[in-house]
């Protein structure tokens, strides 16, 4: 209920709902084909006929932005979801490990955290090779250390909590305490971070596509569209500006929503 009283959270939710429609059913927002080429209308500025203008081959930029949501945001969602699950499992196990083992494993995690996420993803793609699947895999691996660290911190805190101690005194086994009490609580706290992390993952995936390491033409993808329009900024700014605005808007919306959820979680724990 608190979330619905925040205008910025409501706007973010509505915008993300529209983006979700673009991902699932883009034909509801545009009747054009994102791959249709018409050289007779190439490089036309935004108009009533073409809301976001056309690109070098006459393709409708608005349509390509709408259809590009699936590829651009899909990678972010998959990477964040996979990182959340893997980070939860590894971080929880590290948090339950003996102190000496915890120290060794966390030094390795800290080493990965010292490398910026985008740079780490870039290194992984350089090793694996370009492609949308490899980008999703690289972005996932690059963000996992953050979730591992947070899951480990919450797990070690919960180990000393009263309700976990009470459960053990009642004779409840360690496996059941872990699955019924510790992991669900840690997951709820990681989910707030994941909401913010979706935007970061989308930005990383778009950056890798911009460098030509993701999907290839003529597939619609926001990072690829940015790359295709960077040389036309002086004469056809709309080719790069509108997919750039789409990336920016999604990142801001997920960040705003995530911060509101984190504030609500903090108030609930207070």
TrEMBL record:
CDD domains: TM_PBP2. Keywords: Cell membrane, Membrane, Transmembrane, Transmembrane helix, Transport. One of its GO terms (biological process) is transmembrane transport. It is a multi-pass membrane protein. GO terms for cellular component: plasma membrane. Gene3D superfamilies: MetI-like. The keyword Cell membrane applies. PROSITE patterns: ABC_TM1 (PS50928). SUPFAM superfamilies: MetI-like (SSF161098). It is found in: Cell membrane. The chain crosses the membrane at residues 73-96, 108-127, 133-150, 190-215, 235-257. It holds the Pfam family BPD_transp_1. Residues 69-258 form the ABC transmembrane type-1 domain. Belongs to the binding-protein-dependent transport system permease family. This is ABC transporter permease. It comes from Microbacterium mitrae.
